[in-house]
Fold these 2 entries.
Entry 1:
Amino acid sequence: MNLNYRQILAELDRCLQADRHVLRQQCRRLQRQPTAELLSQTVARFQVSRDAYDQRLAKLPCPSYPPELPVSDKRQTILEAIQQHQVVIIAGETGSGKT
């Protein structure tokens, strides 16, 4: 994959947070003094970080909302409350699906 520092900077949000600072610094150095060695190192680090990010993203749990749980009927109301408020407290009977 032939990447340049501009493409890497544009896709930093698809990398691990821990790698973004170093990649940004390497891209700035590439902008000032482009060398094949630094470009190769930067692209390699970028690809490893992006692959790790994609793997983590693929492993995220996918929530399900079984219709037999009472809280499933309130899903939209709860979502709106979470979007509008910093803290939301959900109270309900044991087994109602609060988790």
Note: The helical segments are 5-10, 17-32, 36-58, 75-84.
Entry 2:
Amino acid sequence: MRGHPLSALTLVLAAVGPAVAQEPVRSRPPLGPVPELDFPAPKRVTLPNGLRLVVVEKHNVPLVQVNVLIGAGSVYEDDARLGLASLVADLLDEGAAGRSALEIADAFESLGARFSSDADLHTAQISLRVPVGRLDGALGLAADVIQRPDFAAAELERKRAERITALIRSHDEPNAIASVLFEQVLFGSAHAYGRSSLGTEQTLSAIDAESVRAFHRRLYRPNNATVVVVGAIDTESALIAVQSAFGRWERADVPTVSLPAAPVRSARTVYLVDKPGAAQSVIAVGSVAVPRATPDYAVLEVLNTVLGGSFTSRLNQNLREEKGYTYGASSDFDYRLFPGPFRAGAAVQTDATAPALREFMRELEAIRAPIPEDELSRARNFLAMRYPAGFQSVAAVAARVGELVEYELPDDTFDRYVGDVLGVSAAAAVGAARKYVRSDDVAIVVVGDRARVEAGIRELGLGEVRVLSVEDVLGPVPVRTGT
């Protein structure tokens, strides 16, 4: 999980706390008025080949961030070749258009540019940050990498070996085991969200150079891509640069994806994965919730901040500060293009597994009751005060614009956020909690030492307890690390 942004502030406040005699007023922002977000309206252009361009001008530093978003994520894989999307994205700069991987890296470095590529569920993203005066050269190089990768057999074997090694390691990582199982039980094997994007030894072994090229040929097309440009550049200049780099990229018919509804859960089930000798148990509790485009986004942000989205949230105060079961407990709504999961969880001391699980269930039930106004105000103010800070760098702004693109959100989404959050009422919060945070039909995943935790879990009477091995979740441990 990401480190909490308030940790340093918490230490400062702890140090000065005894000298402050006045009880703080928590019904209004403590640091003055809420900072305003000055987010320029994105400018949109579509090139003749179907490539979409989105430009946001930010002239405070002479840098440009270019993110190319392509509809080529893991949801487009077939079951026999899981892991293909991330492999393709990772191989792009391992040789392209007559340059070796080392030559490509040296060329970007000589331009003062940072380049990376990866893939998530729905998109592959190519990221480029470069001084504005060297944009043309860097963008031309990036275009070669995106459009004309070599996909050399030797590089494919090396990347495959890295992934199989990662699979071997994952068998010893309780967090990885819990994450994979949690998605499996919520979404099922028929749903793309229920599959591991890492793949398995069998599916990775089935990926050859031709399947890599075919995936790239089918999905890496201009009419399946958006170029986001943020920085010290105007729309006309950005259009000229992008047209020069990508104007001859050939369009083609590309597939669309529509995911089935996740299975409906009718009862609460505990999935206990035996990890003998584990010093801690990893707990994950949740259910399928909402897509990013939900109209309830602001109220869910406030609700989750109260429950588990900040250091002072109920879950963390209960399990960490009061009970001492864990170094940190949290919750989140994982917003995706289609409905994603709500999850609450923590890594807890083995002996505290059952008591911690009991507290999770209590908090999930308690959040469905009306939230006191002072607690609600703290959550609203916490979100509103920190929000503009997330738009300071060109990379951060480009990532936010990518949200607009990937999740098909209105251009004024960010301008409305603070007002929407500050306007969340107690009635709206309790309504959202009763609709989206349930305790009676959740999936409960525990990865820990069965011999020490099973009896306590069963005594809680939470529902059926299904005991699994690590191999039941991840498959057999790979016996090789490549060829």
Note: Confidence is low (pLDDT under 50) at residues 1-30.
